[in-house]
């Protein structure tokens, strides 16, 4: 027989059961309902038994119809008490459980304990979400040999002892069966502190354009929470949260495949289960936010890495420890490490819990599917998620309401995570301000430099203009002096360099060099002044000789004023002072031994026409 797909809805007076039976014979079907029991048969489909959360009655108002196009039966059954609300119609796994298993005693139990007593105790007790304090007990040698439990409600042990090599990528702790809870926590804190990277955190803190865009994403529970809040404000009363959560056909199929179980949890174990649920939901909300609702190859890694419950098999004792652990892991492991993502996941988790167990179950089913498609992470479904999916359908809604209120009152700041975030941010802000100040000063200096260069250019242009005007006035004065005297100074055209530079006769060096000539006329004779253009290498050699204590003296008396020797002076030479020695070439070179080098003096010779 095949268990058909089905769903249940309700209105104030009727319960509606919709059953999909494609290719079945509509003329051959059987329906049975009485009190809280409902059965359906249409070959080859058989819905053995549904245990309803309320009673129905057969009074002639019941009605059934069949849609041939969709292959669905729709059966409307009247409620025994009109207006009664049936809770948990979406919890298909719980509805399929046999009625006997809901109240039967477990096969293994403590004396004078039963499942019914546990349920009554859970309903009556006020759950304390504060830190549980227990006296310190020294561990004995015999207890160290025992295996330490983990998993949902700490009901498993010995799983990783056999599969340590295969499952090393799933969890971070090594040999969890022999590691007590306190040691797991100590190792986890040490690993988080070693993994934290200040540069990565500060980069996401200052360059957060992408993160701010991700924070604007709104998952499905945001709109559902808004609708629920608005409806509650209008009617001033509580409404069923199931009406705001819709399960897909794939999710309903997942629920039908789960095996119904009963869990005997003591107070301490239930405490760990509720806090572990918060930890898993926080990691799931982060994953949905950063991927904007899409699945990726990193989805499984993100959820299990950010949840210390899944990654380190952690058992928390208070809500604050859960928030601190999640905050530290967000800032140490994933791609986006921003405290805004921590607070966003915190807010989303509160919304999910306020929407009730239907919203929580929908999130757990999504996590279950993500792990199912990831090869190494499937073991986490067996250890945690499958049990959570079954357990959440049976708990009381007021427990989740109390849990959401306690979580909403909790506070998490950057100082709580213990990574010196505020100090890092303050130091980075100071460095950034100094860099901005230096950049601003550099910009001002550059502007001042450009301004000064502009002023210098303007002054050079003005000085050039004034010098041109001065040369024009000098030319005018020279013309006027010529016209007044009637004579021209024969050496007035001599270059400035020739008037100021010391003189040396370069006749012996002129060969093979270029010369420049200037002709000056006095009206009677024509004098040609030539000066050699010495190569740089020759200048260096002369400088070396000069440094070896050879100096060419200044021009002696008797030479021509312009540095040229006339014909009369060559015929009747003027006697030379004793301190001069005549050159063997007789060309008028004068050398003197001196310890102090003086600049070279160039003496230009005359060329007759």
From TrEMBL:
Keyword Nucleus in record: yes
Pfam family, one: SHQ1
GO MF, any single term: unfolded protein binding
Example GO biological process: box H/ACA snoRNP assembly
Keywords linked to the UniProt accession: Cytoplasm, Nucleus
GO CC, one annotated term: nucleoplasm
Subcellular location per the Swiss-Prot or TrEMBL entry: Cytoplasm, Cytosol; Nucleus, Nucleoplasm
Domain of life: Eukaryota
Renumbered residue ranges of the record's region Disordered: 442-500, 553-609
Amino acid composition bias (Basic and acidic residues), ranges on this chain: 576-585
InterPro entries cross-referenced by the UniProt entry: CS_dom, HSP20-like_chaperone, Shq1, SHQ1-like_CS, Shq1_C
Sequence ranges assigned to domain CS in this UniProt record: 1-90
Cross-referenced CDD domains: ACD_sHsps_p23-like
PROSITE patterns per record: CS
Ranges of compositional bias, category Acidic residues: 471-487
Membership in a protein family: Belongs to the SHQ1 family.
Protein name (database record): Protein SHQ1 homolog
Natural source organism: Scytalopus superciliaris
